[in-house]
């Protein structure tokens, strides 16, 4: 018990997460690939459908954000006793509400404000 | 820690441990507090992204993203930021090995890459405004300049912080306080890279397709 305690306090001496060369390189290589593919998809106009391209590049962005979070920001479930992850999850929920809510409400408002619709009613 | 060299008497050891742990709570509190700041900054960007998402098709008869955006330029800019992320990582690795010079060199390279990013972005802004596609042209351009400009402003402050930290390192070396600052700037820098992923995907790539 006391040995474990000593170890943990020594670990805290080197505060912040411990990072490794291989971790950074894996993250970097993955990021390069995950950046290059969306640019190629759009610049070379690979997929014929616009919607398919949008979904694919948004997917790549999401994966790359996760890669950055894990390999560069060293996110995990036990750093700072889990408070890092908890605040991140809370932020992501607010992010989703802000983005989805704004787009949804404003889209419907735009549709209802169309001059054509106002004339027809 | 200077007092770790002092060997306490048996009776006092618990007191020393308490003091030391108390200090560590402060240190860890800084990293967690800084993370909470980053999360609130995330919400600022969420609001700006939402604004851009709502206004991105309101061109007011003006130029669209497809007319304006120069994707090769954005790709170069993105690679600057990505490279600056990995060079900051190398600075952190040097710091872990307690190598002051290596830390400062990689930090300086990160600063140069960040400045290159900022320079290219300012060139792009100048070019757009020169073409008559300034922030006052349409709602789309207003939200574009606000979102990308806010990110650029963050990068500028990051560079100022980085230079300040270089001076601090030169003066005081890799002290506990400076290592803590390096960790905070590391989070800030990588966070800006994460935001940029959203910017280049949603603003530039999706804007170029319409």
Automatic annotation (TrEMBL), chain A:
It comes from the Bacteria. One of its GO terms (molecular function) is cytochrome bo3 ubiquinol oxidase activity. Its main location: membrane. It is found in: Cell membrane. The keyword Signal does not apply. It is a multi-pass membrane protein. Keywords: Cell membrane, Electron transport, Membrane, Oxidoreductase, Transmembrane, Transmembrane helix, Transport. The keyword DNA damage does not apply. One of its GO terms (biological process) is electron transport coupled proton transport. One of its GO terms (cellular component) is plasma membrane. The chain crosses the membrane at residues 21-42, 54-73, 85-107. PANTHER family: CYTOCHROME BO(3) UBIQUINOL OXIDASE SUBUNIT 4 (PTHR36835:SF1). Belongs to the cytochrome c oxidase bacterial subunit 4 family. Heterooctamer of two A chains, two B chains, two C chains and two D chains. This is Cytochrome bo(3) ubiquinol oxidase subunit 4.
From TrEMBL, chain B:
GO terms for molecular function: cytochrome bo3 ubiquinol oxidase activity; cytochrome-c oxidase activity. It is a multi-pass membrane protein. Pfam families: COX3 (PF00510). GO terms for biological process: aerobic electron transport chain. Keywords: Cell membrane, Electron transport, Membrane, Oxidoreductase, Transmembrane, Transmembrane helix, Transport. It is found in: Cell membrane. Coiled coil: none annotated. GO terms for cellular component: plasma membrane. Residues 26-208 form the Heme-copper oxidase subunit III family profile domain. It comes from the Bacteria. InterPro entries: Cyt_c/ubiquinol_Oxase_su3, Cyt_c_oxidase-like_su3, Cyt_c_oxidase_su3-like_sf, Cyt_c_oxidase_su3_a-hlx, Cyt_c_ubiqinol_oxidase_su3, Ubiquinol_oxase_su3_dom. The chain crosses the membrane at residues 31-54, 74-93, 105-123, 143-167, 188-207. PROSITE patterns: COX3. The keyword Metal-binding does not apply. Cytochrome bo(3) ubiquinol terminal oxidase is the component of the aerobic respiratory chain of E.coli that predominates when cells are grown at high aeration. Has proton pump activity across the membrane in addition to electron transfer, pumping 2 protons/electron. NCBIfam families: CyoC. PANTHER family: CYTOCHROME BO(3) UBIQUINOL OXIDASE SUBUNIT 3, CYTOCHROME C OXIDASE SUBUNIT III. Belongs to the cytochrome c oxidase subunit 3 family. Heterooctamer of two A chains, two B chains, two C chains and two D chains. This is Cytochrome bo(3) ubiquinol oxidase subunit 3. It comes from Zhongshania marina. The gene is cyoC.
């Amino acid at each position: 018990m006391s040995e474990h305690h000593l170890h943990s306090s020594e670990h805290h001496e080197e505060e912040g997460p411990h990072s490794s060369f291989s971790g950074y390189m894996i993250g970097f290589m993955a990021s390069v690939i995950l950046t290059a593919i969306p640019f190629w998809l759009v610049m070379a106009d690979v997929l014929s459908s616009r919607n398919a391209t949008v979904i694919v590049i948004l997917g790549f962005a999401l994966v790359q954000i996760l890669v950055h979070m894990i390999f560069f920001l060293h996110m995990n479930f036990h750093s700072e006793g889990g408070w890092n992850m908890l605040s991140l999850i809370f932020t992501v929920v607010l992010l989703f509400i802000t983005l989805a809510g704004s787009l949804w409400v404003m889209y419907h408002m735009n549709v209802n404000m169309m001059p054509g619709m106002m004339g027809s009613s | 820690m200077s007092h770790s060299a002092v060997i306490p008497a048996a009776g006092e050891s618990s007191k020393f441990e308490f003091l030391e742990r108390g200090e560590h709570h402060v240190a860890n509190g800084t990293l967690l507090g800084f993370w909470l700041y980053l999360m609130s900054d995330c919400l600022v960007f969420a609001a700006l992204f939402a604004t851009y998402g709502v206004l991105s098709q309101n061109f007011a008869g003006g130029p669209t993203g497809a007319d304006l955006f120069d994707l090769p330029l954005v790709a170069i800019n993105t690679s600057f930021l990505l490279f600056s992320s990995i060079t900051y990582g190398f600075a952190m690795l040097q710091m872990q090995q307690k190598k002051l010079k290596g830390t400062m060199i990689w930090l300086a390279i990160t600063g140069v890459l960040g400045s290159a990013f900022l320079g290219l972005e300012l060139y792009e802004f100048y070019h757009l405004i020169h073409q008559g596609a300034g922030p006052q042209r349409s709602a789309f351009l207003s939200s574009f300049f606000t979102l990308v400009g806010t990110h650029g402003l963050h990068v500028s402050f990051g560079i100022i912080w980085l230079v300040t930290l270089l001076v601090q390192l030169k003066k005081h070396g890799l002290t506990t306080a400076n290592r803590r600052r390096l960790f905070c700037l590391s989070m800030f820098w990588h966070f800006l890279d994460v935001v940029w992923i959203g910017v280049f995907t949603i603003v530039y790539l999706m804007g170029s397709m319409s």
